[in-house]
Amino acid sequence: RYITCMNSHDGSSSIGFGSTNMVVSCSNTFHKAMKDLSKFRHTASASERLSFAVREFERALEEDNRLMHTYDRMTEVAINPTILSRVMQNVFNVDMNKKQDEVSPRKLNQVKDFEVALSKETNEKGNTLWGLFNAVTYYTNHMEKKGGKDLNYLMNGGGYKKNLKAFNTIVKELTYGMGV
Q: Residue 136, Cα to own-chain centre: how many angstroms?
């Protein structure tokens, strides 16, 4: 995890602050990372820019701490059938109450692959919501076919959407479900 300050070399883009775990190595990752950061233009006075930068740096630290707290909470709550079913529904659009012959072969293959990831990650990280979330990210990062578009798929494509749906479903369970 890094607190990141981004700026273009020629001053043509805004200065942005945020928290990220990615290394920016090309224009595409720069623009993707920059899109999600809080920014300010170079035209403000030096005093205003410095004050804004300090506030944004503090905000980025607070956001990062909240995320780490959420991850810690995930390690404290066991997976139950309800949350597993919600994650499967939201991430894979599969109703776990349906019979196998009512689910497409493609979806069945996704579920089987995910079950392998779930077994692996819960064996390593425990039968917790943290293990469940890591199973989704392991599935999207290492098991799902991406057609040679790995980074785009994970940064803003289907993998990103699956990971975000899993995260939001699990956080909702922590906030409103049994994990409060």
A: 10
- Rounded distance, CA 64 to CA 71, Å? 11
Extract the tokens encoding 111. 């579920």
**From the DSSP assignment, how many helices (H) and strands (E) are in the chain?**
7, 3
CA quadruple 53, 4, 148, 103: dihedral, nearest 10? -80
Report helix, strand or coil for 79: coil
Q: Residue 27: is its pLDDT beyond 60?
A: no
**Structure tokens that stand for 119 in this block:** 């077994």
- Burial of 170 (C-beta count, 10 Å sphere; 0-12/13-18/19+): buried
Q: How far is 141 from 123, CA to CA, in rounded Å? A: 18
**Residue 67's Cα: distance from chain center in Å?**
10
Closest to 88 (Cα-Cα) out of 4, 174, 170: 170
Give rounded-to-5 percent helix, strand, coil for the chain.
65, 10, 30
> Considering the entire predicted model, what is its pTM?
0.71
